[in-house]
Amino acid sequence: MNIGYVIKILRLQRKMTQEQIALEADMATSNVSRIEKGLRQPSQKVLQRLAIALNTKPSILYAASERPITDISDFLEKEVDEEKIEEEEERDEQYIDQLLLSHETQSVLKLFSELTPHNKTLMLEQLKTLHRWQNRVGQ
Description:
- This protein is an all-alpha fold.
- Helices cover 80% and strands 0% of the residues.
């Protein structure tokens, strides 16, 4: 497993220093250096913090580390490009959803999402009752 090498390649692709990564991951620069050199294997917790600092997921780091060393750089570049595309698509979908929903609908959905599961059930039942009552009165 070449997890340290993967972290180093991704750090260099991001044009970041070990100091920047260490600061973002709340760890000593010397630990980042040891991990990159393969002198130390990061724990799950440390790997999670490093992934966040590198703006990626631990699963990407693991997947890259299972590849031959000659393929790691290309793999990471491809994965980063795909992550950016997915993020852009998600932002576009959220933007479209916001445009399609009225302000009142957005407010109701926000308030509803903050309810407990039990209160959500109660709210849905009340809404169904109100809807039935409205249909009867409207006829």
